Amino acid sequence: MAAPQANPANSLDPRQHIAALLRNALASVAPGQGLAEIVLERPKQASHGDFASNLAMQLARELKTAPRQIAERLVRELPVSAHVAKVEIAGAGFINFTLTPAARSAVVAAVLGAGGDFGRGAPKSARMARRLQVEFVSANPTGPLHVGHGRGAAYGASLASLLAFAGYEVTREYYVNDAGRQMDILAVSAWLRYLELFDEPVPFPPNAYQGGYVREMAEQIKQAHGDRYVHPAEAVLACVPETDDIEARLDGFILAGKDLLGEDWAYVHSHVLSEQLADCRADLEEFGVHFDVWFSERSLYDTGMVARAVEKLEKAGHIYTQDGAKWFQSTAFGDEKDRVVQRDNGIYTYFASDIAYHLNKFERGFDKVIDVWGADHHGYIPRVKGALAASGADATKLDVTLVQFVSLFRDGHKVSMSTRSGEYVTLRQLRGEVGNDACRFFYMLRKCDQALDFDLDLAKSQSNDNPVYYVQYAHARICSVLAQWGGDESALVKGDLAPLQHDREFAICSRLAEFPELVQAAARDYAPHALAFYLKDLAGDFHSWYNAERVLVDDVATREARLALALATRQVLRNGLSLLGVSQPMSM
Q: How many angstroms separate the CA atoms of 557 and 563, rounded?
């Protein structure tokens, strides 16, 4: 996906300025290489300047000349610039550029002028991918969200915010799995617990949902409808096969519920769905995660979209029938085996509804569809993309990012978690223990495709070892300094920045200037974790400067220049933290 162009807030964009200088020199040194890409990197060591180019090494093969010789020729042909203090050739042929103090500090005025829009990308051009859909979480509404869902929620929400800030039009979507066997299992779990309340207990299936929330829903049904849905335990068990196959027995309990309750089964099913979906929605809202669309799986069946999707594949010659079931030839599209889309009893599979759902996404006109899935769904990617391609859709429009598992640690020991047993640690419990800010930030401390060890003790600590505390403390420190000063912040926007001369001050300026570039790169790579790393580095730069230099010095010009730098730093911290869904406290 091509990223939209950054929208520089200041009249001088150093990167573009230096690129233009190199392009001018290139026209003299190698006129035939005018289309060569000019890449500028920020050196890791400040002594190597503000930008470095490997253009000479790129040209070496075509020009059949040593890179260092090409670099020397390029440097000789560089136009004189009032914004460049020094140009040096390093190593095998790198060209290092050092900006003048005025050019380095100009970013402060740019940040203060743009405010909350600093780093925001310009709206993308119509000829490039513009409308994006990010679908994330999409957990079955069969119980409370757990800490794994929390990571997917934090990642998806941060990614969507980052993409929108980078200049894309983003739709956030939750796919509600409100059809199929898992919802039937939840409904029968609540019904069996309901029967227990009326002294009609049956052996509770070990593979049904076990959590206390199931008993709560059973009590709700009792309070609302009394004994309306009570049937003798003997009648229930009569529908259940005597077998060691626990899945077959569970299906027997579901069949018993549907047969004995008749039309009332729909109420039980609807009640547990609405309760768990409402709980999920509230949990996410409290977590600062919001969706534009809640898409119902059931609607795919009610509108005939699933049947039409399978029919489309069948007409295209990608479906065959075996043992009464319909199979999609997914092996022809890179999958390890073919997949059933409709069983011999006529019931469509989950895969069939997933095909219909993704075709519907494309029908809605998105230029790119981004799915955020759990790592255990890795094998699902080729079959979905294969089905899209077989249906005539452009499967390259679908990008899937995988979120790896989360392990919680307390006192150096791993916290055990499970699923249906009801013993797992919920997202709500985690948020209650460490707070939303720590959750959102800690979830971003690893790339989404890397397993995450979540240290509960560290997340709660008020120390510099706690990354979210460290970043927020930088913001609070700046607020404290500005409060002590008590002046008009707006007056700093056009102040004189010439007194900024120290290396630590220029280090902050350099870091601030990276923010727009960071936003575009992180959006392009679907990597909001890069934002968390950046904020830690920016906070570190500020703390280092603050501990070494006084801001509120007696000299008015120096004081105001340093206040402007602090204010610009606070603004970028705010911009970055807001994209991650983390608050920006005024005091700590």
A: 10
